[in-house]
């Protein structure tokens, strides 16, 4: 049973991370707040819910779990999460995408502690994650690899080549989480290229699949706690989310893929989040 106090603690962290992400993007005048907000609850659960085995004081420890943000344009929510987790000072978030800052618009593993691989070009994260999982298997190591992809990103064929390989090599130490917010740059995913029935596609590729409300922290804790779902099969979690979650005028609107809030919009967004709008409601 999921502890209520843990869920409350994670909810407060998710609120703080959403607020800090919005402030950071507003100051930088650059970012992808819509996808940041849709993924915030997932990252909070992984990093603060006892799911990932990591140590901010030893970010390259060989026995650590590997988390890969394949949707690298969501670097904002990764940076805010890593900073809250203690990988680098919170104050450094103010340098996001500024000249000479190590907090680039896409994550750089050579600059930022806690970043496992450079991402940005879509369709690269899962192939790298498959390589990580295979390496752990060859070494007889217990650490796991978890990768978060966007749903529009699944239009890249490299993901499906990697999915075939993962199933072939029976990589049950690998988990892909799909941030299924239904939107991508410019439009809804289903208007761009049909992805559904998405769960059936992953099953057909030999993966064990679960679907979850990606804003229900208790449900996320529960599904992550079940890993691996089946011995000998890689794991897929389709997390149904809302782009711009927690802010009424951003939620489910394609324009907020990369629009930056102005001062008035930022104030309204922070007010909604402060009033409890980080949103852990049902996803349809």
Fold topology:
Blueprint: H1 4-28, H2 33-48, E1 66-69, H3 75-85, H4 125-139, E2 145-150, H5 157-168, E3 174-180, E4 183-184, E5 187-188, H6 189-192, H7 198-204, E6 208-213, H8 217-225, E7 235-240, H9 263-274
Written account of the structure:
The structure is a single chain. This protein is of the alpha/beta class. It has one domain: 3-Layer(aba) Sandwich (Rossmann fold). Helices cover 39% and strands 12% of the residues. It contains nine helices and seven strands, in the order ααβααβαβββααβαβα. The strands form two sheets. It has a five-stranded parallel beta sheet, sandwiched between helices. A two-stranded antiparallel ribbon has the order 4-5. A hairpin with a 2-residue loop joins strand 4 (183-184) and strand 5 (187-188). The radius of gyration is 18 Å and the shape is globular. 47% of the residues are buried.
Jot down its keywords.
disordered C terminus; globular; 284 residues; 39% helix; 9 helices; five-stranded parallel β-sheet; alpha/beta; two-stranded antiparallel ribbon; Rossmann fold
Gross CATH architecture: 3-Layer(aba) Sandwich
Radius of gyration: 18 Å
Task: Note the main sheet.
Answer: 5 strands, parallel
Look up the CATH topology: Rossmann fold
Task: Output the number of helix runs.
Answer: 9
CATH homologous superfamily annotation: Thiamin diphosphate (ThDP)-binding fold, Pyr/PP domains
Uncertain segments are 278-284
């Amino acid at each position: 049973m999921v502890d209520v106090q843990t869920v409350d603690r994670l909810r407060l962290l998710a609120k703080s991370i959403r607020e800090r992400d919005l402030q950071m993007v507003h100051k930088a005048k650059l970012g992808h707040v819509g996808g940041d907000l849709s993924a915030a609850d997932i990252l909070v659960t992984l990093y603060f819910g006892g799911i990932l085995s990591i140590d901010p004081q030893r970010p390259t420890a060989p026995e650590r779990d590997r988390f890969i943000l394949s949707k690298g344009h969501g670097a904002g929510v990764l940076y805010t999460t890593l900073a809250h987790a203690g990988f680098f000072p919170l104050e450094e978030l103010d340098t996001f995408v500024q000249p000479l800052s190590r907090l680039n618009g896409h994550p750089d593993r050579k600059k930022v502690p806690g970043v496992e691989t450079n991402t940005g070009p879509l369709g690269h994260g899962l192939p790298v994650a498959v390589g990580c999982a295979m390496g752990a298997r060859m070494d007889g190591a217990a650490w796991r690899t978890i990768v978060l992809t966007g749903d529009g990103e699944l239009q890249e064929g490299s993901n499906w080549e990697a999915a075939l390989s993962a199933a072939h090599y029976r990589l049950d130490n690998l988990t892909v989480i799909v941030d299924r917010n239904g939107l991508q740059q410019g439009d809804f995913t289903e208007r761009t290229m049909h992805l559904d029935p998405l769960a059936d596609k992953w099953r057909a590729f030999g993966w064990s699949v679960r679907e979850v409300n990606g804003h229900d922290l208790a449900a996320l804790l529960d599904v992550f706690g079940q890993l691996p779902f089946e011995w000998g099969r890689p794991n897929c979690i389709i997390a149904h989310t809302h782009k711009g979650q927690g802010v009424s005028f951003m939620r489910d609107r394609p324009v907020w893929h990369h629009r930056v809030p102005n001062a008035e919009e930022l104030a309204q967004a922070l007010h909604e989040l402060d009033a409890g709008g980080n949103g852990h409601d049902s996803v349809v």
